[in-house]
Design goal:
Blueprint: E1 11-14, H1 19-31, E2 36-39, E3 51-54, H2 60-67, E4 72-75, H3 85-106, E5 110-116, H4 140-159, E6 162-168, E7 170-171, H5 180-183, E8 184-185, H6 187-199, E9 205-210, H7 222-226, H8 239-249, H9 262-265
Parallel strand pairs: 1-2, 1-4, 2-3, 4-5, 5-6, 6-9, 7-8
Bound molecules: D-galactaro-1,5-lactone (15L).
Length: about 280
């Protein structure tokens, strides 16, 4: 891998003030000194080597200013759960377009795009899927992530941008419930995937699953492993905690069948036998 510790590459992290951004900043800081944090509001606790570039993703000029001179972008910014169409449209569709287009104009070489498991959330839990499957979004949010992956492919094919889409499961210190025993990823492991996206010499356009080494995984993440991903988190180490939390949550007749869980169940008006592939 290329040594980027000299800090000569300007790397921009969008969504830096959000949940995932906040968890991974301390891990990125020693790897990428000079990291530029971008968000609508400045995080309160900037580290000595971090700087801040304010940008609302819906405003092209602000996004252009944030990525000016950047070599690479880690794009976490946007709406991170299901929401009203107007919110998803602005933050995740318009915002994602603004980000890729500003990056192209600025000559950004690499983008790591935070996609989501909700782009494929309607696959049944009993099915193991690879990254080549047709998208099956489970929400307007999931559709926006599928859009982001399509946009990423366009910028890779048409403009030669090196883009890695990570279909992130759930990032946190441990799996929150039984569903997360399959899709959990530790902050350390997601940073490994981001490093692959920022540094691996052999990638052009990739879709990888953002999951730790989970025995109950629904995903074939062999491409990530080929690229050197060696996750250290193991969801099974936290099974007792996840099952205890699940007992408090109780059953969900729709969500429990599908990988996307409650995102599938929300606003669901279909017959479960007709949903999913
Ligand atoms: C996501 O994409 C969300 O950003 C996060 O809040 C979780 O809901 C996660 O998926 C999940 O599926 O657990």
């Amino acid at each position: 891998m290329v040594d980027v510790r000299n800090g000569s590459r300007r790397i921009v992290l969008t969504g830096a003030a959000g949940g995932v951004g906040t968890m991974i900043r301390p891990l990125l800081a020693p790897l990428y000194p000079g990291l530029v944090l971008s968000d609508k509001v400045e995080p309160k606790d900037l580290l000595p080597d971090e700087s801040f570039a304010a940008a609302d993703l819906t405003r092209p000029q602000e996004v252009a200013a944030a990525v000016e001179g950047a070599d690479s972008v880690i794009h976490l910014g946007g709406f991170s759960v299901e929401g009203p169409w107007e919110s998803i449209l602005q933050a995740n569709i318009v915002g994602c377009y603004n980000l890729f287009e500003a990056a192209r104009q600025a000559g950004v070489k690499r983008v790591v795009f935070a996609s989501s498991n909700h782009a494929v959330g309607f696959y049944p839990r009993k099915r193991k899927i690879g990254t080549g499957v047709t998208v099956r979004p489970d929400s307007r949010y999931g559709v926006s992530k599928a859009f982001g992956e399509a946009l990423a492919a366009l910028y890779a094919d048409k403009h030669g941008m090196i883009v890695t889409c990570v279909r992130i499961g759930n990032v946190g210190p441990r799996p929150l419930d039984v569903r997360r025993l399959s899709n959990w990823i530790s902050p350390q492991d997601i940073v490994q995937l981001i490093r692959i996206g920022l540094e691996h010499p052999d990638i052009r356009f990739e879709i990888l699953y953002g999951a730790s080494d989970n025995a109950a995984s629904w995903w074939d993440n062999s491409r990530a492993r080929q690229l050197g991903y060696r996750p250290t988190g193991k969801a099974e180490d936290h099974r007792a905690h996840a099952e205890a939390e699940q007992a408090r949550i109780g059953p969900d007749l729709v969500g429990d069948l599908f990988q996307g869980g409650t995102f599938c169940a929300a606003e669901f008006t279909n017959d479960v036998k007709r949903a999913g592939p």
